[in-house]
Amino acid sequence: MSGLSYAVRDSATMLRRNLRRMARYPSMTVMLVGQPLLFLLLFVYVFGATMGAGLPAAVAGGRGGYLTFITPGILMMTVASVSIGTAVLVATDMTNGIIDRFRTMAIAKVSVLTGHVLGAMIQSAFALVVVVGVAFLIGLDSGASVMQWAGLAALLVLVSLAMTWFAVALGLASPDPETASNLPMIFVLLPFVGSGFVPVASMPAGLRWFAEYQPFTPIMDALRGLLAGAPAGSDVLWAVGWCVLIASAGYG
Fold this sequence. Notes:
By secondary structure, this protein is mostly helical. Helix content is 77%, strand content 0%. It has twelve helices and no strands. The chain has helices at residues 3-24, 26-45, 48-53, 62-95, 98-103, 110-137, 146-173, 177-182, 185-189, 205-213, 216-228, 234-251. Helix 2 runs parallel beside helix 6 (110-137) and helix 7 packs parallel to helix 12. The longest helix is centred in the first third of the chain and has 34 residues, at 62-95. The relative contact order is 0.14.
């Protein structure tokens, strides 16, 4: 077998290891999916009518309009929540001695991290499907075409990959799992200080500047445009650029 074949085989083994760990401890997956769902239901049913009334005239108001507006922010929170679990799992592997055992075995070095990344991508896909499904159940309205849904799915895959790589880097850099669980928390908070829950134009000047130029805002705006069926604009290009930059930072 070639070196590539060994790497693929060992990566598949590590992926099975991570999937079995997720199946053995389903509470973590439930928690990672449950947090975004809690925020979705809270903001729609508690704050939705009031917050929806304050949306710009170009955006449909009311509870239903606010649901459509915040769905991209909830999707970003979902990806960020999964990244926290990824960082914790990587830090756990690095600190409990299993990596030292792997070093004594004839396995491809890249397979351990590849297994974590692929496992996290599968977990992210599951969580995103659940969140989108619940959003449709409570009244999400989308004008997206088939091609726009494909573009939205592709962008979410790219965001998940970028965030996962960055989370892996945080897990490797963390001295313990507790620290690894805290470092990615900023990603859960960024949608709140971006365009995730309120229009950026409604914020004070200093905060508005940060919200406009932080990485999550163009990503959420791109997702919102695709979900609404609007033509792809510069937000998509900015979103892709930020994803590449985040992934490069994690890879470095």
